[in-house]
Each structure stands twice: as structure tokens, then as C-alpha cells.
Write a structure and sequence with these properties.
Strand content: 15-25%
Strand order of the largest sheet: 11-10-9-12-13-14
CATH superfamily of the largest domain: Medium-chain alcohol dehydrogenases, catalytic domain
Largest sheet: 6 strands, parallel
Number of strands: 14
Number of helices: 9
CATH topology of the largest domain: Quinone Oxidoreductase, Chain A, domain 1
Radius of gyration: 20 Å
Structural class: alpha/beta
CATH class of the largest domain: Alpha Beta
Order of helices and strands: EEEHEEEEEHHEHEHEHEHEHEH
Helix content: 25-40%
Shape: globular
Oligomer: single chain
Length: 269
């Protein structure tokens, strides 16, 4: 099969399309004919040697495609099904990829849209778990219209939370369609949020990293109720948790998200 690989560290010019042996799924895994693969910051960090010194390396952790081979024990999908998910081997930018964690692609999504979801969904799920967002809580998402933010909005709404999301006015209708109450970001944010939630919010998630952690802390009632995935320096300065993976493996949170989605689709609790 053809795959993306690099044998030296550097810029995009070190990437090569190479021939590699076809992979085969192990127990509980599926192999897909890749139709689209996601690109994440970890890809360029690996390519530039910022994560490890192993050479050569293949690239890609998330992909979408059509199942063409099943591993032992797989019974929830069949050959020919459209699925998306995570490659534990980090080799999804290829003609064939083995997915260790996967879910059916909803009919409303095409392959590129599905391939962009796994990392965003995992990041959003992790942050919501760390904030203990659940039924009856009010969550403020700073930067709600991007990939991680919109995933966080939808997952929080599915958990029964009320969601207030910041975005530019052009994206307010989009946020409403996801179930959030939009507010504009920028100066005066705290006042606009309090106009919707006079007593503040139960938790705040910073996806944008736009320097608003003090306002989020004030609205949420303390730094322990705020998580950021985008402002490492601000998190250290203000005592806010910076979410970068936690102790649970990413694939575990991804599987939990898929299980919750399947349960809602079938009406199970």
C-alpha cells in the first residue's frame, strides 16, 4: 500500500509517499480502505522531531473509510460499512489503515467530515469529564464554533447541560442550531454571559486561548471549575487545569464517546 512517511526531521518537504506492506487487523480491530484522513498538530510535531526521535515514522491517527477486513471478534460492523475512528499505530495517512477504535459514519456525514471528528471528539469528551459536566449544569464554552468547541457543545447538550458559547456574530445561528446560547467574545464578555446566567456558570471550557481565563474563573466561581486546552501559560498563571490527555488513554475516552452515541441512537440509558 501507499503511505505517508518521513525518514528525516524537517518541514513538509521531508514527507514521502512510500510503499509499505498491507496491515492486517488484530482482535477487536478493523481495517479500512481510507477515503479521508485527519491532520493534527501532533503530525507536524512528530515530523519536526518534537515528540520522539524514532525514524522512519508514518503519520495519521484518525481516518474514515470503508471496512475491508475484520479482526477476530468484531461483530458490530461488517465488510463494506462506512466507519471512522482512531489508529493506535499512528499510520492512518495511507491507502489502508487499521482502526482500534471506530464507529459507524452517520448518513449525514461524508468521509472528510467524519475523518476530522475523532481527535476533536476525544478532546471535548476529556474536558467535559474533567469538568464533571452533566444534567442540570450550565457550561460556558469559549470558542464554541470550531471543531473542538462545537463537539463540546453537542456532547454537553446530549448530557443534559445548558450551554452558553462564545463566537463571532456570524456563527451565532450555527451555535443555536447545535443547542447553545451564543454570546459575542471580546471586551464585556462577563456582562454578556451574566445577562443570560445572572448567577454565573457551573463550569467553563476555554478552547480559543484568547486570554479570557480571569473572566472565566470569575464566572465559574473559581479556577477549579475551568479547563483550558489552548492557554498553557495562562493555566499556570491562574491555577487552571490545562487538559492535555490526563491519565486515561485517548482511545478509552473515544470508545466511551462512541458507546454513549450508540446508546442514545438505540434508546438505551
Amino acid at each position: 500500500m501507499k503511505a505517508v512517511r518521513f525518514s528525516q526531521f524537517g518541514g513538509p518537504e521531508v514527507l514521502e509517499i512510500v510503499d509499505l506492506p498491507d496491515p492486517h487487523p488484530g482482535p477487536g480491530q478493523v481495517r479500512i480502505a481510507v477515503r479521508a484522513a485527519g491532520v493534527n498538530p501532533s503530525d507536524w510535531e512528530k515530523r519536526e522531531g518534537l515528540m520522539d526521535d524514532e525514524l522512519p515514522q508514518t503519520l495519521g491517527h484518525e481516518a474514515a473509510g470503508v471496512v475491508d477486513e475484520l479482526g477476530e471478534g468484531v461483530a458490530d460492523v461488517a465488510v463494506g460499512d462506512r466507519v471512522f475512528g482512531l489508529s493506535a499505530e499512528g499510520a492512518a495517512q495511507a491507502e489502508l489503515a487499521v482502526l482500534s477504535y471506530y464507529a459507524p459514519i452517520p448518513p449525514s456525514l461524508d468521509f472528510p467530515a467524519a475523518a476530522a471528528l475523532p481527535a476533536a471528539v476525544e478532546t471535548a469528551t476529556r474536558a467535559l469529564d474533567q469538568l464533571d459536566v452533566g444534567s442540570g449544569s450550565t457550561l460556558l464554552v469559549n470558542g464554541a464554533s470550531g471543531s473542538v468547541g462545537s463537539a463540546a457543545v453537542q456532547l454537553a447538550v446530549a448530557r443534559g447541560a445548558r450551554v452558553i458559547g462564545t463566537a463571532s456574530p456570524a456563527n451565532h445561528d450555527y451555535l443555536r442550531s447545535l443547542g447553545a446560547e451564543p454570546v459575542a467574545y471580546g471586551e464585556g464578555l462577563a456582562g454578556r454571559v451574566r445577562a443570560l446566567a445572572p448567577d454565573g456558570v457551573d463550569a467553563a471550557l476555554d478552547v480559543a486561548g484568547s486570554g479570557v481565563l480571569p473572566e472565566l474563573i470569575e464566572l465559574a466561581g473559581g479556577p477549579e471549575h475551568v479547563v483550558t486546552i489552548a492557554d498553557f501559560g495562562g493555566a499556570r498563571e491562574h491555577g487552571v487545569r490545562f487538559s492535555s490527555g490526563g491519565r486515561r488513554p485517548a482511545h478509552s475516552r473515544w470508545r466511551d464517546s462512541c458507546d454513549r452515541s450508540r446508546s442514545r441512537a438505540t434508546g438505551r440509558a
